[in-house]
Amino acid sequence: MSDTELLQVLLQRIEALEAREQALTAASNAYQAIITTLLGNMDKTACDKVISMIEQAHEIAYVRAAHRGDEPQKRKIKQADDVAQRMFMVAQGQGRASQSR
């Protein structure tokens, strides 16, 4: 393969990766909106219980990854936990706003 052909193949792969990244970002944003809306519309007790269960699941997964020495998995779990915490804050804000109406 010539350099030009290799460059074309590389550019096609980059385009495919960028398209996949955009699709994943859109899906992630949609799921975050759905989850925050659902949590925001729950009564406070149920919302707090769901949040607590998710936090426990993250902690269990993190401890298991740490026990295995799986650093990439630990980073993924930490990133997921950061996103979840932001969603919880938004959901709890939505819940307070809907209760004040």
The pLDDT mean sits at: 90
Helix content: over 70%
Radius of gyration, taken over Cα atoms and rounded to an integer in Å: 20 Å
Distance between the termini: 67 Å
Shape: flat
Strand content: under 5%
The run of helices and strands is HHH
The number of helical runs is 3
SSE class: mainly alpha
Unreliable residue stretches: none
The number of distinct β-strands equals 0
What labels would you give this structure?
92% helix, mainly alpha, flat, single chain
Report on the architecture of this protein.
It is flat, with a radius of gyration of 20 Å. The chain has helices at residues 3-40, 44-68, 71-100. 6% of the residues are buried. Helix 1 (3-40) packs across helix 3 (71-100) and helix 2 runs antiparallel to helix 3. With 101 residues, the protein is an all-alpha fold. Helix content is 92%, strand content 0%. The chain is built from 3 helices and no strands.
Summarize the structure.
This protein has 101 residues and is mostly helical. 92% of the residues lie in helices and 0% in strands.
Secondary-structure topology with pairs:
Blueprint (H helix, E strand, L loop, with lengths): L2 H38 L3 H25 L2 H30 L1
Helix pairs in contact: 1-3, 2-3
